[in-house]
Structures are given as structure tokens and as C-alpha cells.
Amino acid sequence: xxxxxxDIVIKPNDCAFEEPLDLEVEFDAKRPLxxxxxxxxxxxxxxxxxxxxxxxxxxxxxxxxxxxxxxxxRVESIPVGDVEPSALANCGLLTAxxxxxxxxxxxxxxxxxxxxxxxxxxxxxxxxxxx
Length: 131
Prior knowledge:
Blueprint: E1 3-11, E2 15-16, E3 21-29, E4 33-44, E5 52-58, E6 62-64, E7 69-75, H1 85-88, E8 91-100, E9 103-116, E10 122-126
């Protein structure tokens, strides 16, 4: 299925890591997609340490007709549990994977730079692949 991203909005961004995450994605699809959901996750990938994959949730099923498609996902925080702040202070990956009738259609990968700031507070910046 051919598709084209038209807009990605990440709010808030360039903020404290524990802030809520609101992701809005607009796209066009070449053909209709039925019973589509988006599974959102966060990957903490560190050198010489365990890779942590955090399931953030899934959108409700939607039928997309092709042009001007849209989804929105919100989570109050990225629950990283017992992952050490030093492991989080690295590049992470926010993933959004679309499924239609149970089959994977596409995966969006948004790089997330996490830095350790004053007072050992984590700061995140998520980069859109659209620039």
C-alpha cells in the first residue's frame, strides 16, 4: 500500500521527559484501509545494556478512505519503570505501527533524543521524519 505522510505534530516537545505525549499524524493512503489501528511504543536502546520496549497503547479501530487520513494518540507519560536515567539519556525511538485487519501496513520511527540536565532531570526532543 502506497502512503504519504503529510504532517506530524508532537506536543509538548523539547520538554521534560515525564511530560504527557500527544502525537497527531496526517497521511494519505493509496486505497481504503479497514479496521485500522496504530500501536504506539517507545524503545530504549543502549549499548551493552538490555533493550527496553515500552508499549504505550493502541488507537481505536478506524476505517480510512484514502485521502486526508488522521490519527491522534495521547499518553500521560512514557512509563519507563525501573530503567536507569543514565540508560534513558540516549537516543530512543518512538514507534507508530499501523495494522489493518491484523496485518502490519507501515511503521513510523521518530527519533527521540533524551539528555540529562541540571538536577539529573531528563529532557526529551522527538524529531519528525518530515523535518
